[in-house]
From TrEMBL, chain A:
InterPro entries in the cross-refs: PGGT1B-like, Prenyltrans, Ptb1, Terpenoid_cyclase/PrenylTrfase
UniProt domain Prenyltransferase alpha-alpha toroid: residue ranges: 13-316
Keywords from the UniProt entry: Metal-binding, Prenyltransferase, Repeat, Transferase, Zinc
Native species: Hypocrea atroviridis (strain ATCC 20476 / IMI 206040)
Homology family: Belongs to the protein prenyltransferase subunit beta family.
Entry's Gene Ontology molecular function annotations: metal ion binding; Rab geranylgeranyltransferase activity
Name of the molecule in the record: Geranylgeranyl transferase type-2 subunit beta
Job description of the protein: Catalyzes the transfer of a geranylgeranyl moiety from geranylgeranyl diphosphate to both cysteines of proteins with the C-terminal sequence -XXCC, -XCXC and -CCXX.
Alphabetized CDD domains for the sequence: GGTase-II
E.C. no: 2.5.1.60
Upper classification of the organism: Eukaryota, Fungi, Dikarya, Ascomycota, Pezizomycotina
From TrEMBL, chain B:
Protein name stated in the entry: Geranylgeranyl transferase type-2 subunit alpha
One biological process term in Gene Ontology: prenylation
Protein source organism: Hypocrea atroviridis (strain ATCC 20476 / IMI 206040)
Annotated Polar residues bias: 83-102
Catalyzed reaction equations: geranylgeranyl diphosphate + L-cysteinyl-[protein] = S-geranylgeranyl-L-cysteinyl-[protein] + diphosphate
Amino acid sequence: MAQATADTKSPGLATDAHVKYVLTLDTKTDELDYWMTEHLRLNGAYWGLCALHFLSHPEALPRKETIDFVLSCQHDNGGFGAAPGHDAHILSTVSAVQILAMVDGFEELDARGKGKAVVGKFIADLQNPDSGSFYGDEWGEEDTRFLYAALNALSLLGLLSLVDVDKAVSHVVSCANFDGGYGAKPGAESHSAQIFTCVAALAIAGRLDLVDQEKLGRWLSERQLPGGGLNGRPEKKEDVCYSWWVLSSLQIIDRVHWIDRQALIDFILGCQDPEKGGFSDRPGDMVDVWHTCFGSAGLSLLGYPGMEPVDPRYCMPKKIVARILGE
Amino acid sequence: MASHNVARTTRVRTEEQRLQEIEKINKYRGLEDQIRSQAALGTYTLQLYDLTTKLLRLNPEYYTVWNVRRRCLLSCLLSTTTDQPASDTQDATPGAKNQQSDGDVLQSEVAFTMPLLMEFPKCYWIWNFRQWLLSQAILRLPLPAARKIWETELGLVSKMLNRDQRNYHAWGYRRYVVAQLESPELDGKSMAEDEFAYTTTMIQANLSNFSAWHNRSLLIPKVLEQRGSDDKARAAFLAEELDLVRDGLNVGPEDQSLWYYHQFLVSQIVGDGNGQSITPALTVDEKITYLKREIDEITDLLEDYDDIKWIYEALLEYNLALNRLEDKSGGAGNLQTWLTKLRALDPMRMGRWKDVEQQAK
């Protein structure tokens, strides 16, 4: 496989600008949007921290403040809300666990927070005992995103035994479609982001044997458009975040070579703001931390020089996942 | 934090604009603080409910505030009898009164979310909240009233899908609403025929609507089962579907949606699909006849279009399937020709064509 390089047509990766961009995110308190997006704060911290790791600047965020903030979002039931004063939800809980994993903070979760076991119980209680699926919170929405979040967090905490993994696996299988993809629930249309959640969940459960890898790989590889970027469903536009969902799924089933790597690298690099930092969904659009995370994750997976290798199942640095899982 | 389709601009604020924004922030945070401090007391009052109305109009993504609103509805607007379905309530007078007021409350809540949903059609939390409201209708209202709310909801979903034919939330929500309307809780019966007809309408409006093709593939087994279709009727049905998709391919051979649906039909013929088959009773010889006909039809497309990769990919795949049915080993007839075309027309997926060639050997 040829070494991935920055094409001469593209600007190189503007690492310094991206690091600076992530670090200034939490200073924009005089902008209304900062307050209007507080319901995503903990997810945002995960996206920002991930981007810094992939850009090989993991120490840029202060560890203690990071842990303090994460723990300040925890409820007595073990679950985490998006920010202090926000209700607990599985989506912010998985971000909390992933952040703590990245800053090696599980001991502090036990010492200063409610402890790993309580987090595990919060998540385990969200499993639907009949279907094996997971709810997002006490109000009962079900989606394969939540199932993935549960298996992701519980595996990092070493607490997968708290849930019925076999039932969860059966539920994922029931979300498979004739085109090889997966949807948000049984009967739902195949969608790249949901495919990532399903395939990564099966990978964590060690059940990739249940995936029709030929068919899925074929569908995923057709997501790449002439501009090099990947879309989320047939006949939709390309987007940096979908590029990650597709790419990581292809990596999990060992078929990244079914798409044009260099074209995707060029597309992602074309979505950066080389001066002020950050990545956008498509070239020329507003940057945000979400696309900055998945843009840099994509470049890392594609072997772009100087980047920290990413684990496609967790969207976290490979070496951290390996350390925690003892792989 | 995750913006889509917003052009990159450099934001320059005058000092006056900055101060105006800070004023807005203070107002927003003031409202937020009031909600939080009242919710922290655990008293979910009408006053708190009114505050959630204000905040959610500013920011419908604030999931915690939707939760606060639900708690307010449960504690001071909806009646307290919830566990028994409304239809079981024997005690006519107070029950009926509660039902009427519950009905009014739920209708007014549905109306509240309407403009928000139109403005933010991809916001998960609005869809979730509506779903919760409608489930409350089943628990609390007399059956005809509950059913009417759900029927109205199906009308709304159709409206949303007319505005955005591929809205993922709306299609998922449609399947959910239909499942509820079919359920015994709403004294329902199968709507598979109507929903199948709906996919026909959507496809006729736009052949590239894969969401509609997908839904169609799910409805077919139900429709055939309910029609009590025998083998002959099933064969006729399959022929009609094949005609429909082939007519589309004749004018739009680059349409991925059509090819995926064609692949679905072929998987039903050769029997390698996961789900129920349209024509379960086909003999191997019949399968071969069907498949050969499809291959001939697709080969005919080459007369008008010789530079569409999907045609070569279909020929390759279907001929390999034919080989398996005929129990022949080795590559399909023109394998190398098609692969050469595929490499030339679709170099982005070169690695895949290489793997396909390896496997076919």
